[in-house]
């Protein structure tokens, strides 16, 4: 998932620069080694508590709170710091890691949520040698370019293959209009993954470039209608942009099947798009109506505490904190927390069983959903 690109005011840039310089001398001794005898591990949350993805940030922090409570019942003590608000901005996300570690004593970071922000934050996590577990940054480059970054979600390469296979075998489509924003890591990365797999499966495509921050897709929709050659629209974007597209497509009379991905899995999609949201197919990490005991318990606990249903950001952040907790509990001798997290196998999470591979990515299943009258309806699970 990737946040909208939006202008950072010069005052904020100056503040970030000041913090970076002021703290530079404090970071040399930061490290992630913690002996198993330590009674508690302090973790920081680098999340968007304001800005365009604030609802994800709030849900993510709630998921983290529930995970800390669950781990405490198992005798694993984590101290969750109040969230550092990154405003959905990449520079702020990097600065938040530095504040959490150097000023507030965090020895692990949960977050950021989106790919663009996570890649920026990971550079600081590497500098400070502190493990960072992003709940939902699916861009494959995150863990490839960073030694201390982990994720609780699957990567875009895998998600793209599942989406392409579903488009070909289940939806029986052969020529896709792929709408993507080349400046957005999530949108561009997932478009490429889908494109490559769709062509390998015998499909053809046309790229349609868009600007997600503008949320104005009228010209692209009209071009698709005029072409009369497409049998599928694939739009990798987050739910606010997907909702805007769906509204505009509905008004324009576009009736082609629409396929999107995990960034659209949020109940607010229906609030924003209304009836236009019906009939959309998407991949995700989490099916709240699953019958597994861990999911039923998580949903019940979340609804009891917060009086609303959890979204996918809450579920993934819950699992991200479980990963940190398991790593902390299983540390051996002078082993670092990073290396202990990297050894995780068969951790039962809300979003499925998690085993960390050599690239620090979880090996896990993909859930396929369809929207229907204001609900995400579970279709099936695809194993890795």
Task: Record the SSE blueprint.
Blueprint (H helix, E strand, L loop, with lengths): L9 H14 L17 E7 L6 H19 L5 E3 L3 E2 L4 H13 L5 E3 L4 H14 L3 E3 L6 H5 L3 E3 L4 H14 L5 E6 L4 H16 L3 E6 L8 H10 L4 E3 L4 H14 L5 E3 L7 H6 L7 E4 L8 H14 L5 H18 L7 H6 L4 E3 L2 E5 L5 E2 L2 E7 L2 E8 L2
Parallel strand pairs: 1-2, 1-3, 1-4, 4-5, 5-6, 7-8, 7-9, 9-10, 10-11
Antiparallel strand pairs: 11-15, 12-13, 13-14, 15-16
Helix pairs in contact: 1-3, 2-12, 3-4, 6-7
Primary descriptors:
globular; 384 residues; alpha/beta; six-stranded parallel beta sheet; Rossmann fold; disordered N terminus; 16 strands
* Average pLDDT reading: 90
CATH homologous superfamily descriptor of the largest domain: Response regulator
Tally the structural domains. 2
Radius of gyration: 20 Å
Task: Write a concise synopsis of the structure shown.
The protein is of the alpha/beta class.
What do these coordinates show?
- The chain has about 375 residues and is an alpha/beta fold.
- It has two domains: about 30-155 and about 290-365, Response regulator (Rossmann fold, 3-Layer(aba) Sandwich), CATH 3.40.50.2300; about 155-285, Response regulator (Rossmann fold), CATH 3.40.50.2300.
- It contains 13 helices and 16 strands.
- Strands 8-7-9-10-11-15-16 form a seven-stranded mixed beta sheet, with helices on one face.
- α9 (about 240-250) links the parallel β9 (about 230-235) and β10.
- α6 crosses α7.
- It is globular, with a radius of gyration of 20 Å.
- Mean pLDDT is about 90; it is low at about 1-35.
């Amino acid at each position: 998932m990737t946040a909208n690109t939006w202008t950072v005011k010069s005052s904020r840039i100056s503040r970030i620069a000041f913090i970076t310089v002021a703290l530079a001398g404090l970071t040399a001794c930061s490290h992630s080694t913690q002996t198993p005898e330590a009674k508690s591990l302090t973790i920081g949350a680098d999340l968007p508590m304001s800005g365009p993805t604030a609802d994800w940030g709030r849900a993510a922090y709630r998921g983290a709170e529930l995970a800390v409570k669950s781990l405490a019942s198992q005798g694993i003590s984590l101290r969750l710091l109040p969230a550092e608000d990154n405003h959905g901005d990449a520079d702020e996300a990097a600065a938040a890691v530095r504040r959490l570690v150097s000023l507030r004593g965090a020895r692990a970071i949960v977050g950021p949520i989106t790919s663009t922000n996570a890649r920026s934050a990971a550079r600081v996590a590497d500098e400070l040698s502190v493990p960072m577990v992003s709940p939902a940054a699916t861009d494959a480059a995150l863990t490839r370019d960073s030694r201390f970054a982990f994720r609780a979600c699957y990567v875009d390469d895998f998600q793209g293959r599942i989406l392409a296979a579903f488009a070909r075998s289940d939806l029986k489509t052969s020529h896709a209009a792929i709408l993507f924003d080349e400046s957005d890591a999530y949108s561009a990365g997932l478009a490429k993954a889908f494109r490559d797999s769709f062509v390998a499966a015998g499909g053809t495509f046309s790229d349609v470039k868009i600007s997600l921050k503008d949320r104005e897709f009228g010209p692209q929709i009209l071009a698709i209608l005029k072409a009369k050659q497409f049998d599928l629209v694939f739009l990798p974007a987050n739910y606010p942009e997907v909702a805007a597209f769906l509204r505009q497509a509905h008004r324009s009379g576009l009736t082609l099947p629409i396929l999107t991905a995990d960034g659209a899995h949020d109940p607010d999609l229906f609030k924003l798009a209304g009836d236009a949201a019906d009939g959309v197919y998407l991949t995700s990490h989490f099916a709240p109506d699953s019958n597994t005991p861990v999911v039923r318990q998580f949903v019940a606990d979340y609804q009891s505490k917060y009086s609303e249903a959890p979204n996918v950001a809450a579920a993934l952040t819950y699992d991200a904190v479980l990963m940190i907790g398991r790593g902390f509990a299983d540390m051996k001798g002078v082993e670092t927390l990073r290396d202990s997290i990297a050894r995780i196998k068969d951790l039962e999470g809300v979003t499925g069983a998690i085993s960390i591979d050599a690239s620090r990515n979880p090996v896990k299943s993909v859930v396929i959903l369809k929207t229907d009258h204001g609900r995400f309806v579970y279709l099936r699970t695809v194993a890795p």
